[in-house]
Amino acid sequence: LARGPLPVRDAVAIARQIAAALAAAHERGIVHRDLKPGNVMLTRAGAKLLDFGLARLHAASHQLDGALEATATASVALPGMLVGTLPYMAPEQVEGKPADARVDMWAFGALLFEMVAGRRAFTGDSAAAVLAAVLHAEPPRLAAAAPCAPAALVRLVDACLERDPALRWHSARDAATALGWADDSAEAGSAPAPRLLRRVAPWLA
Fold first, then answer.
1. What is the value of pTM for the model shown?
2. Distance (Å, rounded) from C-alpha 105 to C-alpha 8?
């Protein structure tokens, strides 16, 4: 990500593996609550989802001001307050509300947006500005940030970044399936179909 956006097919392949890992956790009643690039390791066997510490972490008490600055780049857990990493935290997490699997889907959408667009979905000059963007700014649209993204991928990311949890994509298993459709779209857009090529080749000759 430090080098810029990933090719759509690579982003989709990695995202499918992350979605499968989230689905396995969610089906066991585990909410990660801190999905971000630093918690995804790319290996020869595929993407691995790391650090489920915040899923059950009870942190010692901290001052909120210091915690806000820490969440700009690092994880934090405050009882009844903030749990996660600000640029990837769902609005209900920022507000200190109980978190369910839909907070992971918000973070998944933010992560997928970053992989395809080459920039974070929510940014600011300070931790407070990032917090304000998450809570109040209109979620960015992938179609504007990455016009070449397949429509199936755009719909998925936009649905994951719905501010209202009731409207947000809530199933990681279904997200993995939808990413399969996006992968098909990306493949179709990257090269002509062989049958079409066979029909057109004689005319080109």
1. 0.78
2. 19
